[in-house]
Amino acid sequence: MDKLTVAQARLESAIGKIVLLQGWVRTRRDSKGGFSFLELNDGSCQGNVQVIAEAALPNYESEVKKLHTGCSVSVEGLVKASPAKGQATEVPATKITVHGWADADAYPIQKKGATFEFLRTISHLRPRTNTFGAIARVRNCVCKSIHDFFQEQGFLYVHTPIITASDCEGAGELFKVTTLDLAKAPLLPSPPGGEGSGVRGIDFHQDFFAKPAFLTVSGQLQAEIFACALGKVYTFGPTFRAENSNTPRHLAEFWMIEPEMAFYDLDDNMSLAEAFIKRIIKDALDRCPDDMKFFQERIDKEILARLDGILKSDFLRVPYTEAIDILQKSGQAFEFPVKWGMDLQTEHERFLTETHFKKPTILFDYPRAIKPFYMRVNDDGKTVRAMDVLVPGVGEIIGGSQREERFDVLEGNMKEKGLNLAHYQWYLDLRRYGTVPHSGFGLGLERTLLFLTGMANIRDVIPFPRTPGNAEF
Ligand code: 4AD
Ligand code: MG
C-alpha cells in the first residue's frame, strides 16, 4: 500500500495502486443507491479526491454517514479511473478510519461564501479553505523561485540581523526591543537645572544591549557590508514597521527580499528587478497552474491575462519629474494634490501604472528630501538615484536605489538628515576603505502576492497578519 497525497492520487499514474489517503472531508453526498461520496482534501493541491464509501463498510452507518465538512479521516482503497468529469481518478474505499469529528453546528468554515473579513477572525482555521490553501501554496512557490533566481546567478544568501541598533529608512517606525521593566525604567540623571526642569530619558546603558535596540525595518545596511566584500548577495527575512497605517497594503510585520550588488549602477539594478519579477510570475504560472486558475475564476477575472501581458512586455523607466508632470496634466481629482517634491501616494502610483502606462513602471530619480540618507545624489543636487517599481493592482512593490559610495557626500547627507554619525562609523568605513559603486532594492513579499493572486487585502496573503491593534497567536 502506498501512502499518497491527494495531488498524487488525482494523477492518472495512480490508477491501479492500492493507497492510503489522509486528510479532511470537504463534503459528503449520499446516493440513493445506498453508498456515499466523500470529497477528500489534504492541502497538497486545489482539487479533492472523490472517495466512494459503500454501505458494506463495517462503520458505514455508525460513522461514514455522520462525516461532514472538517472531519479528518484515513482512507484505504484501489485508485480507479473516474467516469465523472473534471477528475481522472476516484477511490472506492476498502476502509475508512475517522480520526477527528468536527461538530457540524459549531464548525465555522463549512458554509461557502464566508467573507475574508470573517475568516480573519479565525486565522487558525482559514488555511482549510480553498482560497487560503491556494495562497499558502503560491506563497511557498514564490519563496522557492526567489532562492532559485538568486542562487542560479551566483548570489550569496546572507542572514542579516532581526535585532539592530540602526534605523535604515530613517522614518522612525521602529519597534523597541528591551528587557527593562517599563514601569520602573532606570532614568538618566536629572538634566542641568535640577529636579523637574525637564523630562528624564531612560538610561539604556542598563538595558540588555546596553543601548537602544530595535526590530529591523530593512536588512539593507548589513547586506551592503557583505556586498562590499563578496559581490552579489541577498537577504530574505521578516521586517518590522511600527507605522500606524491601517491600509490594505501595510503590515507591521512583513517579509522582504533585498539583493545588494557591488559594481551595479541604477540601470543594472532596474534590469535585475525586472528579470526578478518576471521570473516569479513565470514560476507561479508554471508551477501552480490550478491555484492560479482558481484566482482567475474566483478573485480577479483579469489576473492571468495581466500577468501574461507583463511577461511579454518591457517595464517602462520614467523619471519622477516626468511622472509628476503626467499626474498634473491628467485632469484626475486626486485626494492628495500633486506637486514636485511630494512622496507619491498609492492613488498616484496606481493611476500611472494602471490607467496611464498600463504596465509595470519603474520611477527613478526621486527628490532627495523625501528619500533616505544612503541614496546616491545626482549631479543636480536635488534628486537621488532612487527607483520604485510600480505594478498594476498594487502600486509600489519594490523600493531601491544606487547607494552613495562617495565618503564626503554620504557624510554630508547623514549630517543633513540628523543621523548620529558616531553610530554609523561602520557604514562610513565601507566608503573609507575600498569603496565601490553598488546598488540594491527591496521587494515586499506580501505585495508580490497581492499582485500575483489579485487578492485585495494584504492581511489575507500572510499566514498571521500583524497590524495596529492585532497580533493574535
Ligand atoms: O521602499 P522600502 O521602504 O525600501 C527599503 O526598505 C529599502 N531599504 C530596500 C532596499 O533598498 N534594500 O520597502 C521595500 C518594499 C516596498 O516596496 C514594499 O513592497 C514593501 O517593502 N513594504 C511593505 N510591505 C508591507 N507592509 C509594509 N508596511 C511595507 N513597507 C514596505
Ligand atoms: Mg518605498
Average pLDDT works out at 95
The strand count comes to: 18
What would you call the structural class? alpha+beta
CATH class category label of the largest domain: Alpha Beta
Biggest sheet layout: 8 strands, mixed
Unique bound compounds: 4-amino-1,4-dioxobutan-2-aminium adenosine-5'-monophosphate, magnesium ion
- Number of domain modules: 2
Q: What topology, given as strand order, has the largest sheet?
A: 8-12-13-18-17-16-15-14
CATH topology of the largest domain: BirA Bifunctional Protein, domain 2
Could you list some keywords that capture this structure?
473 residues; alpha+beta; OB fold (Dihydrolipoamide Acetyltransferase, E2P); BirA Bifunctional Protein, domain 2; 2 domains; five-stranded mixed barrel; 18 strands; elongated; binds 4-amino-1,4-dioxobutan-2-aminium adenosine-5'-monophosphate; binds magnesium ion
Please, could you describe this protein's structure?
This protein has 473 residues and is an alpha+beta fold. It has two domains: 2-106, OB fold (Dihydrolipoamide Acetyltransferase, E2P), CATH 2.40.50.140; 132-174 and 217-460, 2-Layer Sandwich (BirA Bifunctional Protein, domain 2), CATH 3.30.930. 28% of the residues lie in helices and 24% in strands. The protein is built from twelve helices and 18 strands. The protein has helices at residues 6-9, 116-120, 130-152, 220-230, 266-287, 289-298, 303-312, 320-328, 346-356, 407-416, 425-432, 445-453; strands spanning 2-3, 18-30, 35-41, 49-54, 72-78, 80-81, 89-100, 156-157, 163-164, 176-177, 213-215, 232-240, 253-262, 316-319, 361-367, 383-391, 395-402, 438-444. Strands 8-12-13-18-17-16-15-14 form an eight-stranded mixed sheet, with helices on both faces. It has a five-stranded mixed β-barrel with strand order 2-3-4-7-5. A hairpin with a 7-residue loop joins strand 6 and strand 7. The longest helix has 23 residues, at 130-152. 4-amino-1,4-dioxobutan-2-aminium adenosine-5'-monophosphate binds at residues 168-169, 218, 220, 241, 243, 250-251, 254, 256, 258, 396-400, 440-442, 444, 446-447. Residues 388, 396, 399 line the site of magnesium ion.
